[in-house]
Amino acid sequence: MLGVNYFLGFVPSTAAPLAIGAGIAVLGAWLPDIDQNNSTIRQKTGTARGQGPFGCMGWIGSIFAAVLGGHRAFTHTALACGLLAAALLKFTPTHWRGYAIAFVVGYVSHLVADMLTEGGVPLFWPLSSKRIGLWR
Ligand SMILES: [Zn+2]
Fold first, then answer.
1. pLDDT exceeds 50 at position 11
2. What's the whole-model pTM score?
């Protein structure tokens, strides 16, 4: 418990920061699938296929996903995770750093979960395009 408190940087007698950290971890776990048209994060942000007036938000989301290389491409790499972690730790105020770590933990959990699927993820791209997964 002390380790959790250290990383989340909150007073042990309150549960609210832990709940907030858990919610932030869920957001981090959703983020890698921003490259998929009907993912939870795209639906929640109104950028899933067909959303917005005349579906324009869906189109914007699709273009953004294509720029990212399509589903399970850049956002599912250790490089993307590392860049995200570095940016969050660099630009997050010290007293909120635990939330940044929670976000990255959520992101990593998504990559691990996708590695448990048949499709795997291109974890070491651009060094290797081989998809890493338990069933590969
Ligand atoms: Zn994914």
1. no
2. 0.84
